[in-house]
Design brief:
The protein is mostly helical and about 200 residues long. It contains 1 helix and no strands.
């Protein structure tokens, strides 16, 4: 065997030697670990099992309490939801009733206002007609009074005129009678004077 071949085989032998050593070490370690586990189990096994049992019981209690709490919350949420739905239904019904009542009241108000407007319009028309009729009647009465007053004034004027004419005529007639009487008296006086002269 050459020197190069010997050098090539040297590493492989070293690797096999190390591998064998590691196998021995692993077996020893496993044995030591097993021994440690046994010692740990002897020293702390009862406490660990007790803790495990307590943790298991605690976990079960927590699970039960969580389930009970979940059921209680679900029950309360269901009750709250039912209550809210009931309240919403009551409020909706009340709101709808109030809307209906207000709608009816508004309709009655509109109807009353319409009737009142019709009545006011009719009253205004009647008042305008009465005012027009009253004005027409008053105007006619004034015209009648004016006409009657004119007739009275005209009649009075005619009466005064007739009376004045009669008075003037009477005065003229009286004046004529006085002249004739004077002439007659003068003639008689003259005749008397002539009769006195003759005798």
């Amino acid at each position: 065997m050459s020197t190069e071949a010997a050098d090539a085989q040297a590493p492989s032998l070293a690797v096999e030697t190390s591998t064998s050593s590691s196998h021995f070490l692993s077996a020893d370690d496993n044995a030591q670990n097993g021994n440690l586990e046994k010692i740990r189990d002897i020293l702390f096994g009862a406490q660990v099992r007790d803790h495990d049992r307590r943790f298991s019981a605690l976990e079960q209690n927590l699970v039960k309490e969580a389930a009970a709490l979940r059921a209680e919350l679900t029950k309360r949420f269901d009750a709250l939801e039912a209550f809210m739905q009931q309240e919403v239904a009551v409020l909706s019904g009340r709101l709808q009733h109030e809307q209906e009542v207000r709608g009816e009241a508004l309709q009655h108000l509109v109807k009353d206002l319409t009737s009142l407007g019709t009545v006011v319009e009719r009253k205004a028309t009647d008042l305008a007609q009465q005012t027009t009729h009253s004005e027409r009647t008053l105007r006619q009465e004034i015209l009648d009074h004016i006409t009657a007053l004119k007739e009275t004034i005209r009649s009075t004027q005619d009466q005064f005129s007739d009376s004045l004419n009669r008075s003037v005529a009477d005065l003229r007639h009286t004046k004529t009678d006085r002249t004739a009487l004077a002439e007659l008296l003068a003639e008689l006086s003259q005749k008397l004077q002539q009769g006195s002269s003759t005798s």
